[in-house]
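pipeline/complex-builder :: batch 7 item 3
reading input block
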Amino acid sequence: MFTGGHLAYWENIGGDRSVAPTGPTCEIEDTFAIYTKTAPAAEATRKKIPLKRTLGSRTVGTGQVIFVMYDLPLFISKNEDGTWDVKWDEDNFKARSPHSIADSVGAKWVGVVTSRCFTEAGHLERLSDDEKESLRAHLVTMGAVPVFVDHSLRHMHEMYCSAVLWPNLHNVVEFSENEEFDVVTDIDSHLAAYTAVNQAVATAVASVLHKDDLVWIHGYELMLLPKLMVDTAGFRAHSTFWFHTPFPTSEIFRTLSSRDVLLQGVLATDMVGFHVFNHARHFMTCCKRLLGLEFKSRLGGRMGVSFEGREVMVTISHLALQTRQVYSHMKSPEAADVAMQLLNKHRGKTIIGGIDRHCERLQGVFLKILAFQSLLQSGYAGKVVLVQRTMTLQRRTKDYVKSSREIRALVERINAEFGPVVDYEEAPSFSLSYRLGFYYAINMLLQTPIREGVNMLPLEFVYSRGKWESSRNHVPSSPRTSPLAGDSVASSPFRWETIDPSEDIVLPVPLPPPPMGGILVLSEFATASHCLSACSSVNPWNIPEVRALSVCARARVCGSVWPCFCGSVRGGYVIGIRVLTLSCEWWAHRW
Amino acid sequence: MVGPQVVKVLDSSLQLDDETVTRRLARDFSRINNSPLLTWSEHLLLDLLHTRDSKDAGDLTEMEVIPAHHAVSRRFTVGDKVESDLRPLDFGKVRAAFAESQRRVLFLDYSGTLFPREGAGLSFKHQFLGTGSKLSKRRRQVLRALAEDPNTTVMVVMGTSLPTTGGIVDIDAVAVAVQVRFCAMV
């Protein structure tokens, strides 16, 4: 507050201020912290394009939204009578779900489905042509257009994705062979397979595409699709391409032999999307350095890249949570059971929880457990437990096998020294209900990825804990003192949403109330750390020195923790040098 | 093998009082709750439509540097035309408004306004050496005179952390807002 032109004192605000925008633009008047949201002037002049009207009539089949992805998010099983049982994977944000955009506009999903299925005897067999047709007919009724790809072609495509593209997108450069890790030696044939699968999907999209349609392409597995789609269809529909993985620095991306082709493929869309600004910045730098393209600012805060006479917009927006779906699972019996089990098992202890989607090196699970060990050594022994759940990898199995082995060995060592303080489990997946029960029981969620794409688990944690808090009608007071107002202001505009009491979350099993709040500690390399301002940020690479360990333990730990040369990670350079001095044999290994 | 920083954060986080933890959670919860996946998807698809169909959001901006009076001004072009709502600063009008007003608050941008905008290389060098550009003697005089005016408040707004040098912080009555960020979830 200022008097006489001089700063007199700071206004005491009990909490941080936040504004939830109601649209792309909004205007707010702030008179001594009394906020009034006014109608955004920009909205009045901005041309209104109601989505439904513009997309046309659903009944005539034009003006629809086509979601394109590599793997259709479906669970498919065949019944004994030959009929198909197909369900959407509700844990996948790309899947069709209730209260989604498909409720208001026509929508189709296009992607690859399995071309093989398990027989009753448990063998994998290829689907016959008749089976494929019957499955196709069934999926069409669900709004899905399947693409069947020959198994060997699919395998080569996935090898190219997992061994070439995925490491590169995560800032990892592979440059020598190692029998423990996936390596592609024949790049050309794998790139040809990658192109062929992209073409197959493009053909499927073109078969259902109309000029007024919107096409939303997901994932690095289909970077050639936008261009192939235009070539196959013969016209250019509105399309957007989204990266759900990081995008590397230009120094790393340019090591790809197919760098130009991949960039040009993506630039055939109207809009390229990223969840984090840094990834978008790397992409635009690659466009500038490798293709000589210029980018400009556009009114409204967007950026565009000039390509072949068109402007390709680059947008940054972190994925949002399916709040309704999460809320509906919070009342499930499974969630309550999981919460009860954990609370009973670790009664009287502070529970630090970790749940990671992939058991792989870049998830930093090993670092997390090491940090926990240091925490125990610093005086927390007997007071805290680490409950770590890790989902196994379906691809990059060698990475999973090695990571799992090392993590389990470390867990065993810690539990031998301190007692059962690390509760570690792996499973192919932990359902949403399980995770929600898990979040209920823990005091802190700790995520320490080294490099990752979009990850909604921290958002699930924040949302579920917030909803539980709201359901208890807990409104944290945020007293503000406004000297001009004189008295302290008891109420704050920045409070919890109090939900309708009829929506109170009644759990099927009576549980003690969850710990207050819910602490979130995220690695600064976690994608969610860019959109969650209240989390505590850590650098999992903060390693000042190598402690004295046995030679064998040191070699094993070094080999397991620092397997990759991460070009853009500062700590990676340091660690790489340290490892060279410690174990040349290890340095020959890949992650 | 893991340094003290992670352990320190864990330790301090576990020591947080319930009210602080709850307040932090409330901040992020509000954002997530107010912007579910359906809203996010709709905004993106509308943006996609606007990239082609709407002229309002379709024009690209360019900034052209032109000399004006004793300072440098910039003119925005939008598409092929000069944006009519954006004009070079009329210093005569600013002086007249200053003289007529009884109380004034001046918000000054840091990089590119008080100090020349640095390229990435120079910025990195300054960060590495812990140095920064120095405010010119003339600008220090002007800032001091403005700040010492009892009816004028001067606030410098910067998006970075406070520079170690530069001379801003040692001018009495100049307020500095550092690490100013705007973050929105659409």
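note: The first strand of chain B starts at residue 60 and ends at 68.
queue -> next item
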